[in-house]
Design goal:
Layout (H helix, E strand, L loop, with lengths): L2 H9 L5 H19 L5 H12 L21
InterPro entries: NepR
Organism: Candidatus Rhodoblastus alkanivorans
Protein name: Anti-sigma factor NepR domain-containing protein
Length: 73
């Protein structure tokens, strides 16, 4: 935290309780709407694979990590 920000924060009056309550309610509503949205199918499938313990079973391999390199000269 820079020095000018900490000085400003120390001199700022506390937020009104009614405003805090209003902002809290608005944030809870926003996050509740987001949390209740359905999970995309691809993400759900990935989570299922992770839970099953075979997340890397069908994942494509990075060709750079292959032990056999075919070089045509």
């Amino acid at each position: 935290m820079n020095e000018s920000h900490s000085k400003t924060a120390k001199t700022r009056p506390p937020m009104d309780a009614a405003l805090q309550a209003h902002l809290g309610a608005q944030l809870r509503q926003l996050f509740a709407e987001t949390a209740n949205q359905p999970i995309p199918r691809r993400l759900a499938a990935l989570l299922d694979r992770l839970e099953a313990g075979d997340a890397g079973a069908s994942a494509p391999q990075d060709p750079r990590s292959s032990s056999s390199i075919d070089v045509n000269i």
